Amino acid sequence: MSFQQYEQLVTDLCSAIDLPDSGAVLERGWVEVEGFEVQLTHYENDVGAMYLNFHFGIVTAGRTLSVYRLLLEANLTVYAQDQAQAGINPDTGGIILIVRVPMTPDISGTWLAETMTHYAEHGRYWGDNILSSTDEAFMGICSGDYLWIKV
C-alpha cells in the first residue's frame, strides 16, 4: 500500500464522478463535493490509508465553546464508528471532519464518491442545524432541549 495506490484511487474517483483531469486533482489535492471543499491527503506515516478532510464552514463568533461540546458529542456518538473525527480548524475557525479511509482492495472510486456524498450530507446538517441556526434554535440544541444528531 503506497502513494501509487492513493494516486490510483484518486484517478478512479475522478473517473467515477466524471472529472476529466485527475492529474489536476492530484496536484491541487482537493475536490468540491456538493458545495464542500474536500482535501484528499496521503501521509508517509500511514501508508495504508488516505484521508478525506471536509471543510463544513465557519463557526459564528460567540458559539465556539458550545460547538466544541457538540463536536465532542458527535465524535462519541457518530464518528467513532467511522474512523472519523470532527473538530475546529485553529487557523480558520471552520468545522472540519477528517475521515480515515483504509486503502483496501474493496475501496474503489465509486465507493469514495458515495462516501464523500454521505459526509457532504453531514456537512449540510451541521450547517443547517449548528452554523446557520437562529440563536434561539442554537441555544435549544446546546441546552439539550432538542435532539440534534442522528445516531
How do the strands and helices of this protein lay out in sequence?
Blueprint: H1 3-16, H2 22-28, E1 30-33, E2 36-41, E3 49-58, H3 64-77, E4 84-88, E5 94-102, H4 109-131, H5 135-143
Antiparallel strand pairs: 1-2, 2-3, 3-5, 4-5
Helix pairs in contact: 1-2, 1-4
Notes on the structure:
The chain has a single domain, classed as Yope Regulator, Chain: A (2-Layer Sandwich). A five-stranded antiparallel beta sheet has the order 1-2-3-5-4. It is elongated, with a radius of gyration of 16 Å. It is of the alpha+beta class. Helix 1 crosses helix 4.
Keywords, please?
alpha+beta; 5 helices; Yope Regulator, Chain: A
User: If strands are numbered along the chain, what order do they take across the biggest sheet?
Assistant: 1-2-3-5-4
CATH C-level class is: Alpha Beta
Helical content stands at 40-55%
Largest sheet: 5 strands, antiparallel
Runs in which pLDDT lies below 50 for 5 or more consecutive residues are none
SS content category: alpha+beta
The end-to-end distance, rounded to whole angstroms, is: 32 Å
Instruction: State the helix count.
Output: 5
Q: What is the chain-wise order of helices and strands?
A: HHEEEHEEHH
CATH third-level topology: Yope Regulator, Chain: A
Please tell me the total number of domains: 1
β-strand number: 5
Gyration radius, rounded: 16 Å
CATH architecture: 2-Layer Sandwich
The residue-averaged pLDDT reads 87
Question: Which geometry do the CA atoms define?
Answer: elongated
Strand content: 15-25%
